[in-house]
Amino acid sequence: MTGPTHVAIAISAGMIVGAEPLTITFLAAGALVPDLDTHKSIIGRIFLPISIPLGKWLGHRGAFHSFWLWGLVILSGLLFNPMYFIGTGALIHVVSDCWTVSGVRAMTPFSSKIFVLFQRSWRFKTGGNAEMGILLVAGTIAWTGYKIGTMGGLAGTMGYLLKAPKIMVDEYKHKGLMKCKIDGRFRYNSGETVDGIWTLIGLHGTKVSFLIDDRIITDGNEGMLLKARLIKSDEQWSSVKVNGWATTINPVFYFTDGKWFIGNPGQVVFGAIIGDDIKIDNIEFDEMTKEK
Question: What are the domain boundaries of the chain?
Fold first, then answer.
């Protein structure tokens, strides 16, 4: 296989298992390393002073394409974690090359036996049309995995598609002070149902509070969310905790006694406070602590 295909397969594998971006980077790097034994490869051309003598000494798809070598590298990950993912990426490379027509001498130098996957008619030639198809599929999986990751993983994606309130709440728990909205449907205890996009204020326990018509609504108290999709943004709330009481100069929201309240200008507020640009009076600065 060519370098781009190896990288695409490694990235796809990382995306499928939900690996972190740094982990996927190590997997992709590891997927190139076995081809250091040929100066014709991507990594070989970058490190010519190493790849040329290494290729003459070991030959292509020999010891540098062995199961045992990369198995040892994976074990070394017990001491240095990145080596686990680099070794895994390299092992994925070796297994992938077993799918090609020529196969791999995967037990060199202990054996010169060629290891292959599937019967010959199912194997493909490096750089051929079949490999281009594999590259396309692997690239599509990698791109899809990236999109799923940006939507909060499989749970976030399912929540987005199904507008499931529980999934939305679980996703919101990890957003900290990020400003979010709900695209949803809410049914009041009276039976009235409303649809809209509402600003999320906060979460306490399993209950989420949000604004409908300048009124704070708590799911499970005033009614029930029937559908809910989380809308994220790049902005964050400012937050302070007041040890005592204060008068707010601008509109804020504050949490006390297990409930969220609206704090209008000139109103006394206390407890945990969030807002766009919090300005409060009648309190010393050392009594106000910045919240994470």
Answer: 3-150, 155-236, 238-290
| Angstrom distance (rounded) from CA 91 to CA 94 | 5
Q: How large is the C-alpha radius of gyration of the chain?
A: 28
State CA 81 to chain mean position distance. Answer: 19
Mean pLDDT in consecutive groups of 10 residues from the start of the chain, 292 residues: 84 80 90 89 87 83 86 92 93 89 83 81 74 75 63 57 79 88 94 95 89 93 91 89 87 91 92 89 47 38
* pLDDT at 89 (0 to 100): 93
Under DSSP, the state recorded for 113 is P
Please give the Cα distance from 196 to 193 (Å, whole number): 10
CA torsion 13-16-22-25 (nearest 10°) is 30
What pairs with residue 258 in β-bridges? none
User: What secondary structure letter does DSSP report for 214?
Assistant: T
Q: For the chain, list the strands marked E by DSSP.
A: 178-188, 193-204, 207-212, 215-218, 223-236, 238-248, 252-256, 259-263, 268-275, 280-281, 288-290
Q: Are 268 and 247 within 8 A, CB to CB?
A: yes
- CB of 104 closer than 8 Å to CB of 115: yes
Q: Are 212 and 223 within 8 A, CB to CB?
A: no
**What is the arrangement of strands in the sheet containing 215-218, beginning at the earlier edge strand?**
215-218, 207-212, 193-204, 178-188, 223-236
